[in-house]
């Protein structure tokens, strides 16, 4: 807040900045596999387990030495090609970008650095971490384990980072954007002024079911267009927050209704 920004952009990392989720990719290919991983996501959405336990089981299933895991992901995971120009535009317009992730900070920073270079240091990253298991080194097979950011059922409750900004006095409070795609973003969904939910992903289904206002994006080009319109005063946050549910009703949100929307659901801004 030292530059007194009028807008702050918070974003998930995996599946949002990246074209595919690095943790899912690692679990599917060198962990317990896609079927078990997807079932865990469904169980989280249905409230059968919390995200913390689901994610821990995913990461515990990966036993490769940690440096190998980082290199495996650097070699295979790509960033949305529109993220770099969006981030550059944000830097030029005093809009801080903060990455809030349930992934592990060393992996996130390695992927950002390999894709956007020195500018990656200007991104604040808040995520989970990693440590050596007792008596082992992270360089060994089965030698590392996940360290959660906090004690919540999310492991990293992203709302904890958003709320201090929301509570600022009106003359200091920035407009807050958040972009995400899946179950790790549920804690942040209600805490922002405008939520960008990725088309065709679990976060859209959650927003419709729980009556959380949102708008849809395919990639960061969509996000940049919408943010630029809001910053320029061409579209209000309230107007943008109505669009997601309207697109869902029109069959253009990329997800099929699993049943009738929650009674009264209508994506109106808070």
UniProtKB/TrEMBL annotation:
Listed Gene3D superfamilies: 3.90.1470.20, HAD superfamily/HAD-like
Keywords on record: Hydrolase
Residue ranges, annotated region (Disordered): 251-270
Biased composition (Basic and acidic residues): 259-270
Top-level taxon: Eukaryota
Protein name (Swiss-Prot/TrEMBL): Phosphoserine phosphatase
Origin species: Coniosporium apollinis
């Amino acid at each position: 807040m030292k530059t007194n920004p009028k807008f702050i952009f918070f974003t998930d990392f995996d599946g949002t900045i990246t074209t595919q989720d690095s943790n899912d990719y690692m679990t599917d290919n060198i962990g317990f596999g896609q079927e078990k991983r997807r079932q865990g996501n469904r169980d989280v959405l249905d409230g059968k387990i919390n995200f913390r336990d689901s994610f821990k089981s995913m990461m515990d299933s990966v036993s490769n030495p940690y440096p190998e895991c980082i290199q495996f992901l650097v070699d295979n995971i790509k960033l949305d090609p529109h993220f770099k120009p969006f981030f550059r535009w944000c830097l030029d317009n005093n809009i801080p970008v903060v990455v809030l992730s349930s992934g592990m900070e060393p992996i996130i920073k390695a992927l950002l650095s390999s894709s956007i270079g020195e500018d990656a240091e200007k991104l604040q990253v808040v995520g989970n971490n990693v440590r050596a298991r007792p008596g082992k080194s992270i360089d060994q097979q089965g030698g590392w384990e996940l360290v959660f950011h906090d004690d919540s059922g999310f492991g990293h409750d992203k709302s904890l980072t958003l709320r201090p900004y929301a509570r600022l006095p009106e003359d200091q409070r920035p407009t807050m954007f958040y972009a995400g795609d899946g179950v790790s973003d549920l804690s942040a969904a209600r805490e922002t002024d405008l939520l960008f939910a990725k088309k065709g992903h679990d976060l859209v289904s959650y927003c419709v079911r729980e009556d959380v206002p949102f708008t849809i994006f395919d990639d960061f080009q969509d996000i940049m267009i919408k943010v630029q319109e809001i910053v320029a005063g061409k579209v209000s946050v309230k107007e943008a927050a109505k669009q997601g549910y309207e697109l869902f009703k029109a069959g253009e949100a990329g997800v099929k209704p699993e049943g009738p929307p929650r009674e009264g659901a209508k994506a109106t801004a808070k």
